[in-house]
Design goal:
Number of strands: 13
CATH class: Alpha Beta
Oligomer: single chain
Strand content: 15-25%
CATH superfamily: Naphthalene 1,2-dioxygenase Alpha Subunit, Chain A, domain 1
Largest sheet: 7 strands, antiparallel
Length: 364
């Protein structure tokens, strides 16, 4: 049962302001939010090519674990260590999704607005070229807060200098945490307009999507990389011997795709590889961020060159989140006001608090 103190805190939290310390440190809130949000969202755990090498994928939950097994007829089955957990499985474009709620949201409804952003990258012809777990000694909430604001890209020891060198300040200011997350950048707006017209004429998909359904927390975009940058590598040049998806057939557009499926999955891609992010809540002060670099199945890959940017960026983020968590846990912590580069935090907190409150109401 959730204590009255925690119930009152959830009801009184202003989504437009920094959150109370207990949201980041309290085990009651952690487990309640796990049940309220993680178990009710469609979350991808891996890419289907994982099962080319092994027959079983095991994923730890906050209580127990689930297993996804490749059957004799090359299908997938799912089961949980706790027989009371309802397990639902969907494979879409080689992304292996689970849902652990009793009555899951419609998968077709969930995936529909994101389909064109995914399909253009040809994941069905992909392979996992590299995989890495990043240990964030911070709550899932603090971790997602970090990924949903742009201000930390500048200044200090853990600034994302390499990310900035590839994407540029205008993009980070305007799109760093997704569509509508920042401030206007007229030069970037002009470039996006010109690139969009050229790219559509070539028959390639371009678009932007912002969430309109309170059940989900989705977002997507296709925007151009800066002039002279072809890929998210250390020097902006290709790391793979072949491109992916529509770009393999039609040719490169030097574009960048970013998709947020939920607070537990992100997807960023250029023309030659895709990076899949899985944010796994472990406890109120630990999160594991798994990243899969997916390339075309026939590609020869310079792995060090391919992973450099996001390996570096995620390492910096893990260090920053750990410092933030320590600061939040201190007796001096006081929630602050959000700035112009933190509008996505407000959107996320509305989603988070709404689902948490609905979950508590259902427990009555």
């Amino acid at each position: 049962m959730i204590s009255e103190k925690i119930k009152s805190l959830i009801q009184s939290q202003d989504p437009h302001a920094g959150m109370d310390q207990l949201f980041f440190t309290n085990s009651e809130i952690f487990h309640a939010s796990y049940d309220a949000i993680f178990k009710k969202q469609w979350v991808f755990l891996t890419h289907l090519s994982y099962f080319n090498q092994t027959d079983i994928f095991t994923y730890n939950l906050n209580k127990g674990f689930i297993e996804i097994k490749k059957t004799d007829d090359n299908q997938l089955s799912i089961s949980a260590s706790d027989p009371n957990i309802k397990c639902h499985l969907k494979v879409y474009e080689s992304l292996v999704f689970i849902n652990l709620s009793n009555s899951p949201y419609s998968f077709d409804e969930f995936i529909k607005p994101l389909e064109p952003y995914i399909k253009i990258h040809g994941l069905n012809d992909g392979k996992i070229a590299f995989q890495k777990d990043f240990i964030f000694n911070a709550s899932h909430l603090a971790t997602i807060h970090n990924f949903k604001e742009c201000a930390h890209c500048w200044g200090g020891e853990f600034t994302h200098k390499d990310y900035l060198s590839v994407h540029g300040e205008d993009y980070c200011n305007s799109y760093g945490a997704g569509v509508g997350s920042g401030i206007e950048a007229p030069k970037l707006t002009k470039r996006i307009k010109e690139w969009t017209e050229q790219t559509l004429k070539r028959g390639l998909f371009v678009g932007e999507f912002s969430e309109h359904d309170s059940k989900y927390f989705r977002i997507a975009e296709r925007t151009p990389l800066p002039e002279g940058i072809a890929s998210e590598t250390m020097d902006g040049s290709y790391s793979c011997s072949t491109l992916m998806g529509d770009f393999r057939e039609i040719g490169a557009d030097n574009g960048y795709t970013a998709i947020g499926f939920s607070p537990f999955n992100s997807f960023v891609a250029n023309n030659e590889f895709v990076i899949l992010f899985l944010f796994s809540p472990i406890s109120q002060n630990k999160t594991v961020v798994t990243q899969y670099w997916v390339t075309h199945k026939d590609a020869e890959v310079d792995v060090d060159k391919m992973i450099f940017l996001w390996d570096q960026t995620s390492t910096e983020d893990s260090q920053l989140c750990e410092m933030n968590q320590k600061g939040i846990e201190s007796r001096s912590y006081q929630p602050g006001k959000y700035g112009d580069l933190e509008t996505s935090l407000v959107q996320y907190q509305k989603f988070y608090l709404n689902h948490l409150q609905t979950h508590l109401n259902d427990l009555v």
